[in-house]
């Protein structure tokens, strides 16, 4: 054996890129000391899941010893029936987060770039880095995805573009014409991923989650989730619809049993309960307006949102900052989301909750603004 000094590391070292990832920090779920906690930090639905989904979940307990159906056939069938799709074009994931990552693993490698907008969902950056690629962020205009800025950053190295529409945490959206313009400007080798996590909530005539584009084009994927309007975040269920060559690639690399039987059964029941979804939309539409109006009335700027949350802006000055508001609200049992990691240190994201939580939020925020905390 040679005694020459070796560059071999003394312990296992992750691939380049892995150490560059700042781990995703979920919204807080508790407030020490507060007797009643209102969690408005993770965009969950105040209505909870469909009763039919709960019944299906309970029934699934009878077969816990058996492996789940690795193709999620019942769930893909229910999704296909709801949206008039070919089940072969659908892949289910353990949350849409898994699918966003699998798309990066399938299409992005060292030397490749993954593109998204500056205040886009944090999972995109993590997925691109974890796949060994280089993340590229395009600036936004008025906290809204800027199609021209994205297109200006497309290069031969670009392999994937992620657009959350509407976006989290800003709550803003791109009209479908703008999504089409983005697609038209992309070279055919670039995969466009339209993340429609909040699509059901949007009430705008010029909005579309992008299904038509997925069906027309050879390089567009739409991802959706059961974590938001369907109220099944704990079960981890997402799905994507894509061209057959993309579903083929993702099916090759996903875990063979990536959804549990409980998730498959509950998801299939949830998507069939259209009345439950309609009730959630109705609740959100009323409260999104009320909260926006009330917070604006306190003199705070609110970014116009089409989702189930709002982005509230605070002055950077001492005594009135987002960090102080966050701490004050937490002390009153109202948990909201700081969004510094999204490049928005002076804003808080607040989920539209139930009537009681919304009232608690507004009461606490009013006291904060009026200086009752000082
Ligand atoms: C919440 C959210 C998701 C959904 O994640 P799941 O893994 O399905 O729970 C995806 N994209 C965006 C923009 C989100 O806010």
Question: Layout of helices and strands, plus pairs?
Answer:
Blueprint (H helix, E strand, L loop, with lengths): L37 E2 L11 H9 L13 H11 L6 E4 L1 H13 L5 E5 L4 H9 L3 E5 L8 H6 L5 E7 L11 H10 L5 E5 L15 H6 L3 E6 L12 E4 L2 H10 L7 H12 L1 H24 L3 E3 L5 E5 L8 H10 L2 E2 L1 E3 L4 E8 L3 H15 L5
Parallel strand pairs: 1-11, 3-4, 3-5, 5-6, 6-7
Antiparallel strand pairs: 2-8, 7-8, 9-10, 10-13, 12-13
Helix pairs in contact: 1-9, 2-9, 3-4, 3-8, 10-12
The structure holds pyridoxal-5'-phosphate (PLP).
Series of secondary-structure elements, N-terminal to C-terminal: EHHEHEHEHEHEHEEHHHEEHEEEH
Tell me the quaternary state: single chain
**Arrangement of strands in the largest sheet:** 2-8-7-6-5-3-4
Average predicted local confidence, pLDDT: 95
In percent terms, what proportion of residues is strand?
15-25%
Small-molecule binders here are:
pyridoxal-5'-phosphate
Q: How far from one another are the termini?
A: 70 Å
Helical content stands at 25-40%
Q: Which descriptor suits the 3D outline?
A: globular
